[in-house]
Every structure is written in C-alpha cells, then in structure tokens.
Amino acid sequence: MKEYPFSKGLEDVPAAESVLTYIDGQEGKLYYLGIPIEEWAENSTYEEVALSLLLRRLPTKGELKVFDAALRSSRDLPEEVIDFIYDLPPQTHPMSALRSVVSLLESYDEDARRDDLDAKFRIALRLIAKFPTIVAYFDRVRKNLDIVRPNPSLSHAENFLYMLTGKIPTKYESKVMDVALILHADHEMNASTFASMVVASTLSDMYSAIVAGIGALKGPLHGGANEAVLKMFDEIGSVDNVEKYIEESLAQKKKIMGFGHRVYKAYDPRARILKKFAEELSKESKYYEIAVKVEEYMMKKVAQKGIFPNVDFYSGIVYNALGISTDLFTPIFAISRVAGWAAHVLEYLEDNRIFRPSSIYKGELDKKYIPIDQR
User: Fold this and answer.
1) With CB atoms 3.0 to 4.6 Å apart as the test, which of 15, 16, 150, 254 could cross-link to 249 if both were Cys?
2) Residues 32 and 91 in one domain
3) Does 175 fall in a domain?
4) Which helix (DSSP H) or strand (DSSP E) does residue 24 occupy?
5) 329-349 and 94-105 helices cross at what angle (nearest 10)?
6) Which stretches of the chain are DSSP H helices?
7) Average of per-residue pLDDT values in the chain
8) Is 35 helix (H, G, I), strand (E, B) or coil?
C-alpha cells in the first residue's frame, strides 16, 4: 500500500490559500487582511470588519454605508420562521435552535437557488444580519418574554443587546459587545470554517455551508469552550479552591478550560483585550477573582510549555457581566464568526476544488467472507 504523511487532526496541514487572516502563534499575533487585531478592536466596527472580510479589502465610506443600511433592513425574519421558533421546545440548546432556523431560512430565499457568487454574497449579508435576531428571539421565547423587534436606528452590536434585553444598552456595553464580535469574526482555518468550506466545495448552497459551520462550532472543543470555562469556575467555587482544583485536574490529565490553543504558543491577543473588559465590567465578581487566580497559578505551572489563556477564558466573564445567559455564549460566537465562514467560502469558490482527503487504512486485506450462519 502507498505510504502517506499523516498529521492527526490535520494539524499544520494547509488546506487552502487565503488573504483573510494570519496567525503568528509563536508571537501571539492575529491579523485580519494584514492589520493587527488590536487596531481593528480600537478603531473599527463589526460591520466594517465583516464587509472587509467579504471584500478582502478595506471598504470605502460609501460601500460601508450601503452595507450597513442593507444589514439594518435585513434583520427581521419571515413570520412563518418566527412561528417555528415559538414551536421549538424551550429546552432546545440555542445552538441547535440557530442551526435549525438557518436551515429553514433557505426555503424563503430566492438567492438560495442560484449558484453565482453575487447571490452567495447577498445570502452572507442576510445571514450576518439575521443571526442576532434568531438568537435573541429564541432566548426571549423560551423565557416566556415577548420578542423585541430589530431597531434599525441601532448598530449591529447595540441592536443585538436591545433585542436580547428589551433595553437600549449603554455606549460602553455596546462598545464591549462590538469589540467581542470583532475579535471572533475570523480565525483562519479553524474547525467550523473548514467544515463550511468542505460543504461549499461540493457546490452545495451557502445555507448548507453555514449550517455546517454552526454544527462544528457547537462542540465544546471549539465554540462551546467559553461555556465550559464558566462551568469550571462554578466547580471551583472560590479563590481558595483554585490551587487544589488545578492540581487535581492536572494529575487526572483533565483539561483546564480556556487554556492552551492548537495554534497559539503565546498569550492569545484576543484574550488580552477581553481581560481588560472583564476587569472593568466585573472586577469584584466571583468569576473575575477566580479567573485571575487560575491564570496566575496556571502561568506558573504550564506557561513554559507554551500554554496560555485563549479567547474563551475571559469572553464568558464579559458576557456574564452583560447579563447574558451562559448557553448563549457559543451562539454569540456564531453571530460573529458567520462573517468569517462566508468570507472563506466566497474566497475558496473563486478557485474551487472539492475537498477529498485520504485516510490511512490500518486493516487487513484479502480476507474471506464468512457466511452469517458460520460466524
């Protein structure tokens, strides 16, 4: 049999060429379109980041104005889809609700039956606009609250918090949410982006590709990690239990959630930004105090091995401080990352080749079939 190189989980195996995102894992740096993530977080908006990724360049003022207006006018859902959300069992996980509703939306979109990239771009815009609405509507319906319709006078981040809580957020709260969305918008060839690209490479529709991304992001080793971090803090209980919890977990080879990354071997730059917000929003909260102690102790134990806090470590604390339910953390990740999924799909389809990796066969050959009554 032919011998193949093998990398478990496709670690460090290039699957595509891209101009969208670059990660320097050794130095702990992240770039969108060659611009450091810190500059995007300080100077831009999620709307501009999303359009920049879709266009693969910085937009003009006029282009951004048109895109922003299109987002604002595309936020709401068909009434039949809203009825579907009301019919979902309240115990449904929000990521499952998001996955199902996005799949259903294909039936109401004429562009879903077209194959050209312009149609796929329009679908991407609509999904970016509608993801916050889906998540907010489902959260309010399951809590027996009236849904809050989108407010076209509010920005993307402002409007999401408004639909979720029914109150116009403060400028600071809106800024925090906007930066959180910017930080999660893309991250090179992660599992959910790759899943979207694999589906798109078969020339399936854009909705199917995005649903694949949602399904991959739902897993606790990917998007679900930020939920797991807060659950870990609850297990720890107090600052006094941190060292014992970590020692016992490491002895049992149990993962400390929010630490370590497949790519970063230095401090995740997104975590640095979110740590500042976590401190400002919840400096005296139990979660923040435990997080600081966990980070301090873990840095002594594993920093020399290249294991540092990742974006999930502080994002949950930030969302919790904004009053957001824990099981909405991963859907918020999806609200942001849908721009990255769509951008990678559009980029890849310009020079498409269906993904068809190989596997290494480990079984025997030329065995004889044994009839069922002789086994």
Assistant:
1) 254
2) yes
3) yes
4) strand 21-24
5) 40
6) 37-43, 46-55, 61-73, 79-87, 94-105, 117-142, 156-165, 171-184, 191-201, 206-217, 225-236, 242-251, 269-282, 286-302, 311-321, 329-349
7) 94
8) strand
Taking the C-alpha atoms of residue 221 and residue 230, their distance in angstroms, rounded to an integer, is 14
- Active-site residue identified among 68, 109, 268, 312: 312
Q: How far apart are CA 354 and CA 358, in angstroms?
A: 13
Report, as an integer, the average pLDDT of 307-311. Answer: 89
> Same domain, yes or no, for 157 and 280?
no
Q: Residues 156, 184, 187, 261: which is the catalytic one? A: 261
Classify residue 4: in a domain, yes or no: no
Would residue 312 show up in a list of annotated catalytic residues for this protein? Answer: yes
pLDDT of residue 39: 98
Q: How confident is the model at residue 17 (pLDDT cuts 50, 70, 90)?
A: very high
Q: Which uninterrupted H or E stretch holds 358?
A: none
The percentage of residues in the chain with a pLDDT greater than 70, rounded to a whole number, is: 99
- pLDDT, tens only, 204-228: 999 999 999 999 999 888 888 888 8
Q: Are 335 and 138 in contact (CB under 8 A)?
A: no
Range of the domain at 71: 18-219+329-349
Task: For residues 300 and 204, state if they share a domain.
Answer: no
Tokens of 4: 């193949």
Q: Is 222 a catalytic residue?
A: yes
pTM for the complete prediction? 0.93
pLDDT confidence of residue 171: 96
**Annotation marks residue 187 as catalytic:** no
Question: Pick from 24, 9, 319: which is nearest to 157 by CA?
Answer: 319
Is residue 284 included in any domain, yes or no? yes
